Amino acid sequence: MRCSGWLALSLALFSATACAADNPFVGSWEFDMARSKLVAETVQYRDLGDGRMHFSNGATLDYDFALDGKDYKTTDDRTIAWKPLADGSWRVTIKVGGKAAETSNRAISADGKQMAVLADGALPDGTPYKHKKQYARVGVGQGLAGTWRNTEVDTGNMPDGYVISENADGTLTWAIPTDKQTLTGRFDGSDMPLSGPTAPPNTVFAVTRLSSHKIAYVMKTNGKPGQYGTVTISADGDTFTEESWLPGKESEKSTGVLVRHRCPSKDDKDPAWLCPTTR
Predict the structure, then answer these.
(1) What is the Cβ-side half-sphere exposure of residue 33, based on CA atoms within 13 angstroms?
(2) Is 15 a residue whose pLDDT tops 60?
């Protein structure tokens, strides 16, 4: 449910242990990379000539750019710059609000069939991260131009997760602390605005309760669906499984698995956001 990729909320009046018995979604949830499968992405780069390219994810994102190291707008206050390097790879810089948020090296294999992405940056809360992705060419193409299917994602030790709490009025707060993003509302299908300094403008989530342990959601920006998903809590209440996909691409689902974290934390190495009211 993360916006870019997932979402957020802050622990409120009840402890996760007390609320979990009544609402299995309530609690602190920590991402488990080993059990997740984040490989559902197919993108296309089209050569426009004169060093200009067009990017599309086939659903929600389209923009033009050039391989000249200059900044080009992607969406909202975000830009991207592709700088060619001497070895034929590119140094790519993504900026948010004019400030560099991530840099990566993108290199295509000698046979032109694979593209590796090695990235480093900082999460909105300041936590540094590194990740790598691998893409395989789909069909014909030359250089960057063509269609690429994401086949591997390794987020390393990037801290990530959700904190969900139930408020005194019965509403829920769902947060991604590392992204500083929050939703507050009810799981009744009504629009819940996404708030926070890094939240895309005019973005809402409509979450519908399907059963006691399952919800469905749609993320919309300016009224247009940008992502769909479901969340299922295991029968024992300890596993949070999220499947998400782009509009029209339900066959390309990304699966994220999170595990319940028991608060108060017993390990001083745990990130503070896991148990915000006990630190």
Answers:
(1) 11
(2) no
Which domains does the chain carry? 16-37+158-274 (2.40.128.20), 42-154 (no CATH)
Residue 103: HSE in the Cβ half-sphere, 13 Å Cα cutoff: 6
Contact 117, 104 (CB under 8 A): yes
Checking if the pLDDT of 235 tops 50, the result is yes
Q: Is 184 helix (H, G, I), strand (E, B) or coil?
A: strand
The yes-or-no verdict on residue 232 having pLDDT over 70 is yes
Backbone angles phi, psi at 163, to 5 degrees: -130, 120
Which residues, 6 or more positions from 54, have their beta carbon under 8 angstroms from its beta carbon? 45, 46, 48, 62, 63, 64, 65
Confidence of residue 11 (pLDDT cuts 50, 70, 90): very low
Instruction: Count CB-CB contacts under 10 A for residue 124.
Output: 18
The arrangement of strands across the sheet holding 172-176 comes to: 181-185, 172-176, 161-166, 27-31, 254-261, 239-245, 224-233, 214-221, 203-211, 188-193
How far apart CA 228 and CA 242 sit, in angstroms, is 10
Contacts of residue 218, defined as CB under 8 A and 6 or more positions apart, other chains included, come to 205, 206, 225, 227, 228, 229
